[in-house]
Amino acid sequence: MKRNKPKYKQIIDAAVVVIAENGYHQAQVSKIAKQAGVADGTIYLYFKNKEDILISLFREKMGQFVERIEEGIAGKQKAAEKLLVLIEYHCRHLSGNHHLAIVTQLELRQSNKDIRLKINKVLKGYLELIDKILINGVETKEFSEDLNIRLARQMIFGTLDEMGTTWVMNDQKYDLIVQAPAIHRLLLNAVGGKY
Amino acid sequence: MKRNKPKYKQIIDAAVVVIAENGYHQAQVSKIAKQAGVADGTIYLYFKNKEDILISLFREKMGQFVERIEEGIAGKQKAAEKLLVLIEYHCRHLSGNHHLAIVTQLELRQSNKDIRLKINKVLKGYLELIDKILINGVETKEFSEDLNIRLARQMIFGTLDEMGTTWVMNDQKYDLIVQAPAIHRLLLNAVGGKY
Amino acid sequence: MKRNKPKYKQIIDAAVVVIAENGYHQAQVSKIAKQAGVADGTIYLYFKNKEDILISLFREKMGQFVERIEEGIAGKQKAAEKLLVLIEYHCRHLSGNHHLAIVTQLELRQSNKDIRLKINKVLKGYLELIDKILINGVETKEFSEDLNIRLARQMIFGTLDEMGTTWVMNDQKYDLIVQAPAIHRLLLNAVGGKY
Amino acid sequence: MKRNKPKYKQIIDAAVVVIAENGYHQAQVSKIAKQAGVADGTIYLYFKNKEDILISLFREKMGQFVERIEEGIAGKQKAAEKLLVLIEYHCRHLSGNHHLAIVTQLELRQSNKDIRLKINKVLKGYLELIDKILINGVETKEFSEDLNIRLARQMIFGTLDEMGTTWVMNDQKYDLIVQAPAIHRLLLNAVGGKY
DNA sequence: GATGAATGAGTATTCATTCAT
DNA sequence: GATGAATGAATACTCATTCAT
């Protein structure tokens, strides 16, 4: 299994750095190889093509992210608390990965439709996580019983995404994590929750 | 003034069609010229470069959009009503411009950071409009008095944007306009408004 | 019609020189462009891709060759004379086009199967010319009446081709044209003709 | 001596299969190694480089072929009979080695000039065999006394080669061996022989 | 002897922009 | 103003060969 070999992760991490520092269109394979400390050809022992690097990058990083949230949520009873965990982790995830934040919020969005479609499939895991919290909240009557799950999910994801993108576009110069409670209050209000 | 000459608008409209039908990365200047019925070189009599076409496109179309919302809002008293107008116009704007919806929600996002930064400047007008409604709502005590305007604005814009993008990605196959009231309720809840 | 524009022929002639002097695998498009005195990109205004240059080259040059033989044959009555014209023109064609001889006898044969198949289609015109002479000779009873046309054609073409290739491989250092009568006698014997 | 070790022949046979089934340009060393059941690096214990595999392949197979013809000829008195043996063996050789026929008649010709020159050296043994038959025929006055040996050899080889190539290009779908007598008659006529 | 992971040189093609007419 | 032929920079990927184990 290639994905567990050290060079696999090494190349992905190199790609994050190179894309963040040079921009999507200036992230040549040779640059990534150099940053990873391997030959150009070695890249192709671990990835089918350049596109595969980008999608794998997103899958690996987003996968870890979703897993960690799931663990964090597991300890919480109330849907409102789960939502807070999600928001906090989202903020911390962006804050704690300077380069990755740039790559996922800005650079990777320049990729072509094919890549974006595949990235969307990976994102689905995150969206389903949000759905689970919402459905749970409705079932326990914490949230409005007539809540439109899809719209609420779009609101939550859209808000967090817009927040993240704005923050990255402003060069990450303010503190994202301290805003988590305020975001939580807004979104909780929206879905009819109380705190 | 080039902007008022017929070919200026002709080229912009051609760009919308070409980008929507071919995708951002397949929207070559020569294709746009052909669609506009002019020679390649003529484009450069009206636009500095390709980037200038895209930004001008966004400026023209978004400008009209903001103007129309401002007119719609003018007739409303309550902030909650203004917010509803904004949401409805947003949905109608997307629904009524098949090609433009694809271009602004999907294709133009693949442009590089430079263009996206300039697009963001154009968007500022829309964001300020949202801010105005929010500030008005806080002042009239319709909305929570401790509302974080910036976060609330990011939530509103992020929600509408995410909603629009999802809708376009799903080939615009469901009705966006009928969802406006539900969105309105969610967002109004969030900011502490009542209806 | 691109094929009549001067640059079309200019590029083809440049390709002949570059391939002859550098070998098939060292004949980069940029070298051909330089030799033709045009920019790399200009090549693609006249040819679909590199393969198209090679096939067009073969088509143009072989087309002229076959035409000239047809003219030469037209003036002859006897099939034996026609065969002599064909052989003489074949020898003269190779002798008089130093570079082209190298390209068609050696270099172009290194091309991949796709290109070779398309080249074969062009060659068909030449093979049909041989067939016509043979059929004519059989009908006029100059040649054996039980002559196997296909085999005889393979013999004539195979002999001329082998002769040409050997000559080019030996750096064209002996006179090909003086051998035409001897070749003619051999092949005429073969098909049962007299002289 | 490496040439007598089993892996030497194993690799050559693998090369024949791989080249025949994949084409010259798709016959990577790694594919040959896989087909031979050895590691890539092992190839280089038996062959200097890829070129060496191809030339060795040709030398081994052509060597066996020439030996067998020499044996067949040994039993014949007349030059005309010897020529018939050569033609029959040539046809049988191609007919009986499906893969090898493809490799020698089509694929190996795509190799570069260097390899083709070395292959020609190997072919020399075959051409000398033809020469011997021709000289013998002239000396016994079976053939024309003013026969140009070189041209006659080029005719015989060129004819057989063209016949073989055409047959392979047509997917070997007709019977080659039954044509031997007709070819024999043509070539015998050419050199002035009687039957 | 045998392995196979790692290497790194090399090239066709696209397309925004220009400028002579 | 309008044209469109010409420009030329820039980059992913393959595969023969090596060498540490």
From TrEMBL, chains A, B, C, D:
Record flagged with keyword Repressor: yes
Assigned keywords, A-Z: DNA-binding, Repressor
DNA-binding region range list: 28-47
Residues of the HTH tetR-type domain: 5-65
Coiled coil (residue ranges): none
A Pfam match: TetR_C_4
Keyword match Cell cycle: no
InterPro entries: Homeodomain-like_sf (IPR009057), HTH-type_Tx_Regulator (IPR050624), HTH_TetR (IPR001647), Tet_transcr_reg_TetR-rel_C_sf (IPR036271), Tscrpt_reg_YsiA_C (IPR013570)
Full protein name: TetR/AcrR family transcriptional regulator
Organism of this sequence: Bacillus seohaeanensis
